[in-house]
Amino acid sequence: DGGITQSPKYLFRKEGQNVTLSCEQNLNHDAMYWYRQDPGQGLRLIYYSQIVNDFQKGDIAEGYSVSREKKESFPLTVTSAQKNPTAFYLCASSIAGTGGYEQYFGPGTRLTVT
Amino acid sequence: EDKVVQSPLSLVVHEGDTVTLNCSYEVTNFRSLLWYKQEKKAPTFLFMLTSSGIEKKSGRLSSILDKKELFSILNITATQTGDSAVYLCAVDSGAGSYQLTFGKGTKLSVIP
Asked: Which residue of A44, A84, A99, B43 is surrounded by the most CB atoms within 10 Å?
């Protein structure tokens, strides 16, 4: 089955630790995205990648980093510099990064930092 | 700054009711408006609207865009408990790359 997988589903970390969230897609999509969702808030774009080995900052990139070494994979690292990392993180992909296509979402990772 | 505003933020209806969810936007370069349904985790795609006045329909759900007045509505007729979800509106402002600006969502609760 084609789709987007995110792991783990739940993640608990202590403050000061970096943590990496996994996102894999087998849809053969060129573009991939990371969003953050807080309670009562819409999705906010962290980073996006239109093609392998290229990525751009979204609206709230501070304290996050990404890599795009393979078309299928777009891992997100939440660094200790992120002031308020507890949130629900959603990964998405689309056929192309030029618009006109819907974005497909993974099931999300809920990160709790204490 | 691009802005997408959804109303109401939450809504409780009885099964069988018809509901209308609203989405207004202010963006620099409009390319398309998308509706998603989020039940527990992954938002699932409902509609993409690009042209004014053309209704998109899927079963009991329908949506229409008004590019002059900068808004869209999502209608759900004969609601069922399975329609309970957060409905998200997003706009592709088409500023070069493909980026969606999301509203906060409308939480719909359908009670038997």
From this structure: B43
Burial of A54 (0-12, 13-18, 19+ CB in 10 A): exposed
Query: Residue for token digits 């999705």?
Result: A43
* 3-state class (DSSP) for residue B89: strand
Burial of A100 (0-12, 13-18, 19+ CB in 10 A): middle
- Both tokens assigned to B81: 């408990």
Cβ atoms within 10 Å, residue B24: 18
Condensed to tens digits (0 to 9), the pLDDT of residues A62-82 reads: 999 999 999 999 999 999 889
Instruction: With CA atoms as reference, report the closest residue to A47 among A55, A37, A79.
Output: A55
Cβ contact, residue pair A105, B42, below 8 Å: yes
Across the interface, whether the CB atoms of A102 and B34 are under 8 A apart is answered yes
* Chain segment B62-94, per-residue pLDDT in tens: 999 998 999 999 999 999 999 999 999 999 986
Q: At B61, phi and psi to the nearest 5?
A: -105, 140
CB A106 within 8 A of CB A92: yes
Nearest to B45 among A50, A99, A102 (CB): A102
CB contact under 8 A, A102 and B98: no
CA distances A5 to A12, A65, A99, A106, Å, are: 19, 19, 22, 5
Q: Which of A97, A100, A107 is opposite residue B97, by nearest beta carbon? A: A97
